[in-house]
Design goal:
Blueprint: E1 18-22, H1 27-39, E2 45-48, H2 57-63, H3 67-71, E3 74-76, H4 79-83, E4 88-92, E5 103-104, H5 106-118, E6 123-127, H6 136-139, E7 144-146, H7 159-174, H8 192-208, H9 218-232, H10 236-264
Parallel strand pairs: 1-2, 1-6, 2-3, 4-6, 4-7, 5-7
C-alpha cells in the first residue's frame, strides 16, 4: 500500500546532474540530501571524504526510502577526483567569491544543465560542508556559481534543504512542471432547466415554511437566493444533493420514520 507520497508501483525517475557533497559532516544530512534527490529525479550521488565515513547507517534512516541512491553513491578522496570526468560544474555558495564566473539562480542553472546534458556533456552540482560551505579553491574548480535569493543576514541553508531547492528547479524543468495528480473530474454543469427546477423546489418549500414574511420583499429575496446559487456554478451532482437535503429537512425525523415504517411494513 503506498505511503505518504510513496508508490512503488510507479517508475523511479533517474539521471540528471551528478550531486557532489564535499566533506559532509553528518550522515543525517547525507540521508536528507539523498531523500531530496529521490524526490526530484536525481540519482547520482558522489561523496568527497565524508567525516563519519561510509557507509553510514544514519544516512539510511534519514533517506526515508531513497536507499538505492545511497547504495549507488561513490566516495572520492578530494574534489578534483570527484569532478574530473565531468564537462561542467556548478558550485553552490551563498557568498560572493570575487571570481569572474557566471552567477545563476537555481532555475537558470537547471536550464543550463539540461542543455548540456542534451548535448551529451555530463554535469555536476557541487555542495559544500554544513558549517563552512565550499572553500574558495574548490569554487575555483567550477565553471559557474549557483546561488539562491536568501535573506542576506541569514543565508546558510541546511544541506538537505539546499539540495531540495536545486533539485526542485531541476525536476520542474525536466518534467515540464507536470503535477503528480489532478483534481477529480467534476460532474457536468447543470443546465438551466435543472437549475430552474431546483429554484422551484427551494422556493416552494420556503413559501410553505413561511420564510417570506413580507410580501413586498419576496421578489427581491427570491432574486438574492437565485443569485447565490448562480454564482456557485452548480453541477448536476450538486443539484441532486441539494434536492435531497431540502427534502430531508422538509420531511424531518417524523416523516423519515413514517416512510421507513411504511417500507418495512
Amino acid at each position: 500500500m503506498p505511503g505518504a507520497g510513496t508508490d512503488s508501483t510507479k517508475p523511479w525517475h533517474e539521471g540528471g546532474p551528478v550531486v557532489i557533497l564535499v566533506e559532509p559532516q553528518l550522515g543525517e544530512n547525507v540521508g536528507a540530501a539523498a531523500r531530496a534527490m529521490g524526490n526530484f529525479g536525481l540519482s547520482r550521488l558522489r561523496l568527497v571524504n565524508p567525516r563519519e565515513g561510509w557507509p553510514n547507517p544514519k544516512a539510511v534512516t534519514f533517506a526515508s526510502g531513497a536507499d538505492r541512491i545511497l547504495e549507488q553513491a561513490t566516495v572520492f578522496p578530494d574534489v578534483r577526483s570527484a569532478v574530473s570526468d565531468l564537462k561542467f560544474i556548478a558550485a553552490t555558495t551563498a557568498r560572493e567569491r570575487g571570481m569572474a564566473k557566471p552567477v545563476m539562480g537555481a532555475d537558470a542553472m537547471a536550464a543550463e544543465l539540461a542543455g548540456r546534458l542534451a548535448a551529451n556533456e555530463d554535469v555536476g552540482l557541487l555542495f559544500g560542508r554544513e558549517r563552512t560551505g565550499l572553500y574558495t579553491e574548490e569554487v575555483s574548480l567550477a565553471d559557474a556559481i549557483l546561488t539562491l535569493p536568501v535573506n542576506p543576514a541569514f543565508a546558510s541553508l541546511n544541506l538537505g534543504t539546499a539540495v531540495a531547492i536545486v533539485g526542485y528547479e531541476w525536476y520542474k524543468l525536466a518534467s515540464g512542471g507536470a503535477l503528480p495528480f489532478q483534481p477529480p473530474e467534476r460532474s457536468p454543469l447543470a443546465d438551466k432547466a435543472d437549475l430552474f427546477a431546483f429554484f422551484d423546489h427551494v422556493e416552494q418549500e420556503l413559501e410553505s415554511a413561511e420564510f417570506f414574511r413580507s410580501p413586498e420583499k419576496q421578489p427581491s429575496t427570491t432574486r438574492n437566493i437565485r443569485n447565490i446559487f448562480h454564482r456557485v456554478g452548480l453541477t448536476r451532482q450538486d443539484l441532486a444533493t441539494l434536492h435531497g437535503m431540502i427534502t430531508a429537512l422538509v420531511e424531518g425525523r417524523e416523516g423519515r420514520a413514517a416512510r421507513r415504517a411504511k417500507r418495512e411494513g
